[in-house]
Design goal:
The complex is a heterodimer. Chain A has 5 helices and no strands. Chain A is mainly alpha-helical. Chain A has 2 domains: 78 residues, no CATH class; 50 residues. The radius of gyration of chain A is 22 Å and the shape is flat. By secondary structure, chain B is mostly helical. Chain B contains 7 helices and no strands. The longest helix of chain B has 34 residues. Classes of the chains: A mainly alpha, B mainly alpha. At the A-B interface, helix 2, helix 3 and helix 4 of A face helix 2, helix 4 and helix 7 of B.
Chain lengths: 129, 212
């Protein structure tokens, strides 16, 4: 117990804390990082300093970083041995999410481009205004 | 041999675990949050399908209003901060609940609910404003996808608020028993996950949607 109190910040964010101060500190750090990343996202989206075509990609990267912060500091997903099952389930979930999203976007983009020019099949294109 | 068979699939790898299956099934305090984590992940997979639908239909506006004309970044910023603070305060409530501190657990849970309600009111205001301007879900494929995606998240927040009220009442009436704490922990997992989904929504729908 005393060694924990001496090394308040020596505990990984998701690990159990015996000290209430260090446990609150982990949440405060998480909140600070999340607010910082959110602020950067809104700034990136509204500034004209950055290279325009890259902004959307940058925003997605910032969002993924913020999700990581939430997972570590709020949901306590760690690399510790008692978290193996949680991490594996998360990895599988992320795999499915990427398959669904990238697969859909990829296929739908190419379907619009490669479809035979039958007007009835071009629904999405004709709706574009 | 029988002990090994009993532990397959449930060894959770504590520090003293040799990997040879010497321990029995984990306690409920491990298994219940794990099961709930699986539910939350499947919920996230559901949202990924809605995100994919939105991405495929976002330009199918049928001559109606586009993302740049509809979305207000200032409102979204307030919503984002409200939900983030709600998630943070929910974590504080769990910290005090683990220490069986009734007063602060209830106070932080109440603040969690208030921030969640602020988020929900702003979202409903935005929805009613859009529908009033003739940009309801039946206007175009883009708007159908938008209301399905963001509305589904809002519905989750609404359910979360109802759950939150129930948990406040249960903590108040039954105290910090083990099964009540487990339910509270599951609620916090749900609430944090909703914030993660909102990060994706405000980035993909609102920020990328309002790029010049």
């Amino acid at each position: 117990m005393t060694s924990d109190e001496n090394n308040l910040l020596d505990v990984a964010p998701g690990q159990p804390h015996s000290n209430i101060l260090s446990e609150v500190m982990a949440y405060v750090i998480g909140l600070g990082l999340a607010l910082l990343l959110t602020g950067i996202s809104f700034w990136v989206a509204s500034t004209s300093v950055l290279w325009g075509p890259g902004i959307a990609t940058g925003l997605v990267v910032l969002a993924i970083a913020q999700m990581g912060v939430h997972l570590v500091f709020f949901l306590h997903i760690t690399s510790g041995p008692d978290n193996t099952n949680n991490v594996l389930a998360l990895a599988f979930g992320v795999l499915i999410v990427f398959l669904v999203m990238i697969g859909t976007i990829w296929i739908m983009a190419h379907m619009n481009a490669n479809m035979a020019p039958d007007p009835n099949m071009m629904n999405l294109m004709t709706q574009r205004g | 041999m029988t002990t090994e068979a009993a532990t397959i699939g449930l060894t959770h790898g504590g520090s003293e675990d040799t990997g040879l299956g010497n321990r029995g099934p984990e306690s409920k305090s491990i298994v219940v949050p794990y099961g709930f984590w699986l539910f939350v992940l499947s919920d996230i997979v559901l949202f990924s399908a809605l995100f994919a639908t939105y991405a495929a239909l976002v330009r199918a506006t049928d001559g109606g209003p586009t993302t740049n004309q509809l979305f207000d970044r200032n409102l979204v910023a307030i919503e984002t901060v409200a939900l983030l603070l709600s998630s943070f305060v929910c974590g504080l409530a769990i910290i005090f609940a683990k220490r069986a501190n009734m007063l602060w657990t209830q106070v932080w849970l109440l603040v969690t609910g208030l921030f969640g309600a602020i988020f929900l009111f702003i979202e409903l205001y935005e929805f009613s404003k859009m529908i009033g301007e003739g940009a309801g879900p039946q206007r175009s494929a883009f708007l159908s996808a938008f209301f399905t995606l963001v509305g589904c998240h809002g519905l989750h927040v609404t359910c979360g608020l109802l759950w939150l009220g129930t948990m406040m009442a249960q903590v108040w009436a039954k105290g910090f028993q083990q099964h009540i704490l487990r339910r509270l922990l599951c609620f916090s997992i749900f609430w944090h996950a909703l914030d993660i989904i909102w990060v994706a929504i405000f980035t993909i729908v609102y920020l990328i949607g309002t790029l010049p």
